[in-house]
Design brief:
Strand order of the largest sheet: 2-6-7-10-1-11-12-13-14
Radius of gyration: 30 Å
Distance between the termini: 69 Å
Bound molecules: zinc ion
Helix content: 40-55%
Strand content: 15-25%
Structural class: alpha+beta
Amino acid sequence: MLINNLNILIGLEVHTQLTKLRSKLFCPTPADYRKSPPNTYVCPICLGLPGTLPVVNKKAVEYAIAVAKALNCEVSDKLVFVRKHYFYPDLPKNYQISQYIGPGFTAIARNGYVKIYADGKVKIIRIRRVNIEEDPGRIVYVGSIEISPYSLIDYNRSGIALLEIVTEPDMASPKEARAFLEKLIAILEYLGVTDPREEGAFRVDANISFEGFGRVEIKNIGSVKDVEKALTYEIIRQKKIIEQGGKVERETRHWNPSKGVTVSLRSKEYEEDYRYFPDPDLPPMKLDKSLIERISSALPELPDNRIARFTMQYGLDEYRASVLVLNKWLADFFEDAAKIYSNYKKLADLLITDFLRWINEYNLSPENFKATPLHIVKLLKLWDEGILSVKMVKEILPQIIKDGIDVESYVAASGYVKIIDKSYLHKIVEEVMKEHPKAVQDALSNPKAINYLIGLVMKKTGGKADPQITKEIIQEILSSIR
Ligand SMILES: [Zn+2]
């Protein structure tokens, strides 16, 4: 079997909590449950007790419309909830209130797309649908799902508003899946509907198959990096089976991040198994065109628009612009610094390479690193003036990020008052020589006349040029002229 000619099809199903909501999807219970003990943020509705009735959270619907619009979807003119039936301990009603596309009901939005950049290419990933649904409770396994002797249940999460965003199988590699998820996270962050960094707020089911073979779904992956790793693992596993003439089972698997493997959980259930039907407690509601239009026209600047603006306003190429923009805090940092520093490309380069690397290295979040835009601009200016070499910039940068040191006082205290950057001094020496051809002629015939040229360089740099290095550069240039 020539497996390398087979297409890989990857589709993603993303569950994202709308963490910016203050209450759950169908009851007034507070949604900010993470810091409280298990089973404290609950009420009769989200515990599914008899006689209770759900009331839909209006803000959740508005957020869903905003997300749908930002994903270029068609928004439905009605809101219909269905019951998705299954038994699981995390689901006290034995059904989940969700949405579904079928006769008489529909998802809140469908047929959208997201533009991604992967491997230097632009690609369109189609969005099949966006659903609103409630999160089940949380099952806590002691150790891990495979070895836990028992499981605990926490209903704090039960009834939290979730969006389910489903793509078409348009991604052809784990890298493209990662690029899609990074873009989606950025869009959600720009919209201000969720903080995807909150624990458990962003979960992914990934399905993957070789064209013509069985499709495997990997459930509940907790981070973008793990999605990429799990898919990479599955490609190798499925390839082996196909090459040995075997059959890839249609099944659901679990990703074990610590072991770096997927393990079989169960054979895949089919959609009809869930017996979807409209929820009689939540009659269909009309979604006014004017409401949809109002939300649509109030959308903030989204990543694609900001990338386009960065290329226009700052002259950055699309690659640099998108690395900045996909990290919203970094793009904000860049724009603050760009107000007081105009070599935008140099600024962008420092931010998307060493700066970002050190932030990750120290495991800092945008809230707790110490560098301000002013710190970075001061560093760049000292670099521009040749007082700091590239090497020194790279040495000082992590200290600015971690401890917020002021580069000017640091430079003064460390005695970096001399300009020692060779390429910078070379430029100055060349300028001086061009401006004083007679002095150059003198120096060519009389070695002592070099001192006059050194003096001119000192004058030009306000006395900061390192005389020894300056002398060496002048001698080099003179001997190249001779
Ligand atoms: Zn409740």
